[in-house]
Amino acid sequence: MAEESDKKPKLEVVQADGADEGCVTFVMHDEDHTLGNSLRYMIMKNLDVEFCGYTITHPSESKINFRIQTRGGSPAVEPLRKGLNDLHEVCQHVLNTFQARVNEFKERQDQPME
Amino acid sequence: MAAVRDNVEEIRSRVILGEFGVKNVHTTDFPGNYPGFDDSWDMKRFQKNFRIDVVHLDESSMEFDMVGIDAAIANAFRRILLAEVPTMAIEKVFIYNNTSIVQDEVLAHRLGLIPIKADPRLFEFKNTEDEASEIDTIQLQLKIKCSRNPRASKDSSDPRELYLNHMVYSRDIQWIPLGNQADVFADSCIRPVHNDILIAQLRPGQELDIVMHCIKGIGKKVAKVVNSRLDTCSREVLRHVDLKNLVKLGRVRDHFIFTVESTGILPPDVLVTEAIQVLMAKCQRLLGEMDSTDME
């Protein structure tokens, strides 16, 4: 929803660890604790993940370094994808529950007035 | 064994408030940390335990409880509500004439802080290079001149009687429709949220002739578009000094009380809905990036 001010890619991969696909550091541009911490929580809940963490490299640059290490050598993009999907589902469920509750509340408010 | 089990339960589910510090703050229930517990992500368990209770809701503020969600995600909603929900605010101020005491830049700064009652969902974000068009800009005008009141009595010293238009309020800002905005917004005219914000004071002979462009922005980029204030806190437990050795205070880890106050542009339940959708959009964008780089 933010403006695409330039054509910089949102997600980059730091090619740091040789042939091991299970340990990867991702660089995400224009992100901060808002997505970083919630995504970290969802990915840590994955049984396959040995390590997951993120840092903000410098507070004046809005980008985060997001590191995932998997047990068993499966590629690190898989837990990332699963974490994003899970976070999306959580938000959807929160949204549905919230809207249902608000509508209930509004109906309950209208009823005593009738 | 039962005592150990209770202790573990406590560490997992409570944040302890000691006399001098808070313990057990971080979430520790990740898979592998506790033998005998299955902590991996289970959507069904989350849906079963998750609950929202609305305590209070009106036009400008609401209060609701969210139970069964982790601090990381609740905090993400809080951060988005404060800084990333889009709002319409005055961005460009074209000053054609300003003979008041208030300096141009101070006046422009004050105008930028005024909340404008226009639904940001009906507008697009504006690219900085493009010309202002009807889908992304609202044009407002402030044209006012102060003059002496000919009917004032000779010896009065009350400015309200002596001068006409000596206080410039936000209700003096008029909307100039661009393009098809007159039809689209025919029933809800666009104006500042509050009518009585004092912008400047004038004396006879001073006038203001200003045109303003109002665009959609988020708090992160433009500090003046912050939309709401929000308090997230776990349920308060009172402390009594004489009982401190007998009482252990703990806060339930996953129970959050949200208090959302809106500036008036959008009702608070719409704000929360928008915030959740912003987080979903962020996930979608990253997923889209990942898929497009994989396909290359």
UniProtKB/TrEMBL annotation, chain A:
UniProt-listed PROSITE patterns: RNA_POL_L_13KD (PS01154)
Pfam families the UniProt entry points to: RNA_pol_L_2 (PF13656)
Gene Ontology biological-process entries: cartilage development; embryonic viscerocranium morphogenesis; ribosome biogenesis; transcription by RNA polymerase III; transcription elongation by RNA polymerase I
Principal location listed in the UniProt entry: nucleus
Molecular function GO terms recorded: DNA binding; DNA-directed RNA polymerase activity; protein dimerization activity
Keywords: DNA-directed RNA polymerase, Nucleus, Transcription
GO cellular component labels: RNA polymerase I complex; RNA polymerase III complex
Top-rank lineage group of the source organism: Eukaryota
Gene3D superfamilies to which the protein is assigned, alphabetical: RNA polymerase, RBP11-like subunit
HAMAP family: RNApol_arch_Rpo11 (MF_00261)
Sequence similarity: Belongs to the archaeal Rpo11/eukaryotic RPB11/RPC19 RNA polymerase subunit family.
Name of this chain's protein: DNA-directed RNA polymerases I and III subunit RPAC2
UniProtKB/TrEMBL annotation, chain B:
GO biological process, one term: DNA-templated transcription
Listed InterPro entries: DNA-dir_RNA_pol_30-40kDasu_CS, DNA-dir_RNA_pol_insert, DNA-dir_RNA_pol_RpoA/D/Rpb3, RBP11-like, RNAP_Rpo3/Rpb3/RPAC1, RNAPI/III_AC40, RNApol_insert_sf, Rpo3/RPB3_RNA_Pol_subunit
Compartments in which it is found: Nucleus
Keywords from the named record: DNA-directed RNA polymerase, Nucleus, Transcription
Database matches in Pfam families: RNA_pol_A_bac, RNA_pol_L
PROSITE patterns named among the record's database cross-references: RNA_POL_D_30KD
Domain DNA-directed RNA polymerase RpoA/D/Rpb3-type: start-end pairs: 61-289
Gene Ontology cellular component list: RNA polymerase I complex; RNA polymerase III complex
CDD domains linked: RNAP_I_II_AC40
Predominant cellular place of this UniProt entry's protein: nucleus
Keyword hit for Transmembrane helix: no
Transcription keyword on record: yes
Single GO MF annotation: DNA-directed RNA polymerase activity
Coiled coil, from the record: none
Family indicated by similarity: Belongs to the archaeal Rpo3/eukaryotic RPB3 RNA polymerase subunit family.
Protein name: DNA-directed RNA polymerases I and III subunit RPAC1
Organism of provenance: Kryptolebias marmoratus
